[in-house]
Amino acid sequence: MNTKSITTPITKLCGIRYPILQGGMIWVSGSRLTAAVSNAGGLGVLGSGSMRPDALREEIQKTRSLTSNPFGVNIPISFKYTEEHIKTVCEQRIPVVITSAGSPKKYTETLHNAGCKVFHVVPTAMLARKCEDAGVNAVIAEGTEAGGHNGYEEITTMVLIPSVRDAVKIPVIAAGGIMDGRTMAAAFALGADAVQIGTRFAASEESDAHPSYKQAIIDAKEGDSLLLLKKLGPTRMIRTPFALKIKDKEDAGAGKEELVALLGEHKAREGASLGNIQEGILEAGQVISRINKIQSAGDIVAEIMNEFAIVCGKMHNI
Amino acid sequence: MNTKSITTPITKLCGIRYPILQGGMIWVSGSRLTAAVSNAGGLGVLGSGSMRPDALREEIQKTRSLTSNPFGVNIPISFKYTEEHIKTVCEQRIPVVITSAGSPKKYTETLHNAGCKVFHVVPTAMLARKCEDAGVNAVIAEGTEAGGHNGYEEITTMVLIPSVRDAVKIPVIAAGGIMDGRTMAAAFALGADAVQIGTRFAASEESDAHPSYKQAIIDAKEGDSLLLLKKLGPTRMIRTPFALKIKDKEDAGAGKEELVALLGEHKAREGASLGNIQEGILEAGQVISRINKIQSAGDIVAEIMNEFAIVCGKMHNI
Fold it and tell me: What is the pTM of this model?
């Protein structure tokens, strides 16, 4: 393997050296992290789901001042500023736009007309097929071990990736449980053309996550990742005091209204951005138990690619 | 890769040609399936958790009449016939005994003294470490996508295997979501020395599963696998009418007593052995959505090994 660059359908689509996308996480993925990942040869992605329209424009400009490499923007389809964000990325001709949490039909044509590639996040092979029909360029198949918003079907990466691979002809990016060269190699064995990594980059030096949030990722042990809010929209988070409040309510049979009342507003901002690890929500994947240090995004990418090459070499010698 | 046989620490421990173990499933893994898998070069495993002491002895004799290759016996540690079963496998000098659902300390020494190798099933790296301390020969690390009884921590195979690999020096067998050459290759990329496959063999010709149970596996679609009974002991099963009754109770906050009352007795036997797919429990893994035909166990093993060799070859050329 040439470790200076790898060619897959995704590296070609994105114009990047390594088939690694950084997850566009709310309150976490700003211009510093995005530029650092793109400078390291992966695809950095701004998380616009926590940005006002002017903030997104500003972050795009900042990213451009920090890197001349391609980067992407993640836009949740049901966000209150979705329309404005779509306009912004079209005007700015962002090379890759990642849409999620809504129908892939809604904006794909608009984005294509502006010259943007469109990747859509899917938790099932059924939605992957709909994405292909809608003309999406690639799907990001995200297993239930991933942090943040998650599919109702709770399909794990090990089952999801081969299912999606068999369901569509467009490229597949694997997400959920991926954090190093071994898990990246596993994703490729399952049929992926690239990986998306979220939580490990959330704990990187360049991430906008509050230091207490990063430390909570580092400190987390096996079993400290909980999939909650299944009646509202399954969300994977760290076992904080507030997460346990949600769990207690759910175990007691709480319905949607009661959960909405408990949640209130801005819990993700409170946790991720303001660092209130008692009362905020800290979205993160199951890999929190495997992450034990804060590194630069560049070191993370380099370390993953080195291990990936070693593991792929070993596979040949079995 | 030599596809006639592969050498890993597990093939050496078991004296088998291929690093594939068949899950010892209650009501499903009898002498026919066990012998068929062992004859195909894997390790067939009797599921003693649904057998009376005389039935286990009979099944061991039958298996021996059908194969001269090594095979194993799975013994749940908290079963009412555990003591008798342990005596039987010691007397019969079964080469590999797989213990689960209890402390690895309890029987390992007894089994070792009788010349049996001991593999213990674990849902966490923490328990894997305890197994190593207890002198177990290998651990079967089973992700939450696996069928039947499951860990409370709900750790997926993608996260669990590298965690366990890093936690212990003894060999690691991956289970949960494994059903073909791609998933087997992924397990090896994650650090496994072998795989355990349950659900696909449950749907094989030689399995003792009722034909209606096999058909339910074939018919199942994405999302038809549910992890239920989390307050009693998490169990993954097919979305049958009875499974939905459990789910409704749980969503309404039912406690242990209410769930025990709903369950009554013999639900697994009713589903798996008697084929009552309305009122029985059909334990099965998430891979049900990927299984679409009933094959002989020998064809399954051969197909997996062929695909495994192809995938490992491709990994080298990335």
Answer: 0.97
